[in-house]
Amino acid sequence: MNWLPLLLSGLAVGSIYALIGLSLVIINKATHVVNFAQGEIGMFGTFIALSVLSATGLPVFVVLVLSFPIGFLIGALLEIVFIKPVASGPPLNVLIVTLGLFFMFNSLAGIIWGFDPYRFPALFPTAPIAVGGAAVSPTSLGIIVITLLVMAALYVFFEHTRYGTAMRAASMNPFAARLMGIRVGVVATVSWGLAAGLSVMSGILIAPLTFVDQQMMLAIILKGFAGAILGGFASLPGAAIGCLLLGVMEAFVGAYVDNTIKDSFAFVLIIVVLMVRPQGLFTKALKRKV
Amino acid sequence: MLLEIDNLSIHYGGIRAVENVTLSVAAGEVVAILGANGAGKSSLLTAIMGVCPGRVSGAIRFDGASIAGARPDRIVRAGLAMSPEGRQLFSGLTVEENLQMGAFLRRDAAAVKRDREAVLTLFPRLAERIGQIAGTLSGGEQQMVAVGRAMMSAPRLMLLDEPTLGLAPLIIDEIMGLVGEIRARGITVILVEQNAKKALARADHAHVLEKGRIVMSGSAEELAKNEEIVSAYLGTS
Ligand SMILES: Nc1ncnc2c1ncn2[C@@H]1O[C@H](COP(=O)(O)OP(=O)(O)OP(=O)(O)O)[C@@H](O)[C@H]1O
Ligand SMILES: [Mg+2]
Fold it and tell me: Among A42, A59, A118, B47, which residue has the least CB neighbours within 10 Å?
């Protein structure tokens, strides 16, 4: 059963990618750009969480729960201050602003907290538990369970609430959405808030396994982006599954083939998949509508 | 007067699409606005709803209160709704969700439910397709969703922008028949059409727009008598 721990650690890493991948898709649906700063927002929020943790001594789980509203506020503010003023221009202008935000958060974190890595306290027990003869890490299980809960909450929000449906409507047809009295500008702010909340959660979930420093999210945003495209960038469930799959593939290639090629392997596979299915693995081909 | 428009002009950059339009609509009426392609009909309606991308000047009053320059959500709350040209459905949402979005601003769940039933009674075809993705409906069915969605906000004034565009003759009559149904529910209607004959048959008053100006106004009966002149303006004679 040595595949079970491997599968779970792959799913755990994939979960981290998925939280970032989902935030990228949510912002793309509202603002029509890929937010390059998404990972850095997660990193910055993780630093803030760490500061809150050491200043208040709150239990680390409370800080994890707080990470979502903290991230939401950061994202909503960013949208209002930096994105709205350029949103009416071409998407490339917005893209440049997100690149600017990337560098801004990266240096800001360095200036405030320095460039040495910090340790982040463990969220879960560290002693492995035995499942069917295999030693399973509670951290992996914990990350997977929390991510699945977040995904379920997102699903209910977008599919079964009035505001979630309005957010989808605004993304499909902003003109008609305004005719219904939906404030499309507010939808964009909420989208950035949601996305940043998810990114900060992903930063805090991965922080105990890596370290907290300015570079912590660099590889993760690339993988989250790649996994989301693998599954289908147009769909939240597609993107999430793509990210989970990417995490699992990396784990198995790393263990059975070669750890040094696992990063490039993932991208080669994605390129091959996109040659065969340009719309990603889990979304239906877009049909032209009149 | 339920709606009063005073000296309304609309510019897109340097292009003037609507020029000094003044008209009013009494409660309970059906008013037709006729005009050829590019006459400024849609510009006028989007300006009333607060969603016109151009520069709008002049006064628009609804029930006595100015709505010119107001946010569309305020205008919808005030009691206006529009079924836009080209239907503009949320094509990836179901029929149910499209109707639900029409009632986005309403909090009274019981009243919304009653209105949903009313819309589905009016359009039995939509009741059969309530769970279908709107983008996969036929053109006529999509138009019904657009009208039903506008009705879901419980408007007092409904703007219908070319509801028959691109539909087969049989469906055109069905959709046109709706105008009477909507009026029977006490809703005032502004109907934009290129099909003068059909529109005049259902309207009380009508205005003909040419190049952004009103060139003819009167009771629908009068204009129907002068159908040849009207048709000349529409370029359909
Ligand atoms: N968003 C826009 N930007 C620039 N010009 C516009 C815009 N919308 C409309 N126009 C111009 O304004 C004029 C009036 O257009 P409008 O759509 O209001 O006419 P219409 O009477 O509704 O025509 P149709 O019957 O073809 O729908 C046209 O010359 C059109 O090119
Ligand atoms: Mg038009």
Answer: A59
ipTM of the shown complex: 0.96
Confirm if A258 and A26 have CB atoms less than 8 A apart.
no
Residues with CB under 5 A from ligand 2 (ion): B 41-42, 85
Distances (CA, A) of A256 to A2, A140, A157, A213: 11, 20, 39, 30
Which ligand is the nearest neighbour of the Cα of B46? 1
Nearest chain B residue to A172, by CA: B90
Which tokens sit at B77? 């709350």
**Nearest CA-CA partner of A160 in B128, B146, B89, B100:** B100
Question: How do B3-12 and B55-62 pair as beta strands?
Answer: antiparallel
* CB B40, CB B211: distance < 8 Å: yes
In a domain, A230, yes or no: no
Q: What does the mean pLDDT of chain B come to?
A: 95
Q: How many CB atoms lie within 10 A of CB A152?
A: 10
pTM for the structure as a whole: 0.93
Tracing tokens 């003819």 back to the chain, one arrives at B216
* Residue A116 is assigned to a structural domain of this protein: yes
Range of the domain at A183: 12-216
Q: Is residue A290 part of a domain?
A: no
Please report the pLDDT score of residue B237 as a whole number.
54
| Percentage of residues of chain A with pLDDT beyond 90 | 78
For ligand 1, residues with CB inside 6 Å are: B 12, 15, 17, 35, 37-43, 53, 85, 194
A40-68 average pLDDT score? 94
A178: Cα separation from own chain's centroid: 29
Which residues on chain B place their C-beta less than 8 Å from a C-beta of chain A? 49-51, 71-73, 75-77, 81-82, 84, 88-93, 97, 100-102, 104-105, 135, 149, 153
> How many CA atoms within 13 Å lie on the side-chain side of A13?
21
Number of domains in chain A: 1
User: Does the residue A243 lie in any domain?
Assistant: no
3-class SS string, A201-231? HHHHHHCCCCCECCCCCHHHHHHHHHHHHHH
| Angle of helix B109-122 versus helix B139-151 axis, rounded to 10 | 150
CA distance A55 to B158: 58
B49/A181 Cβ within 8 A: no
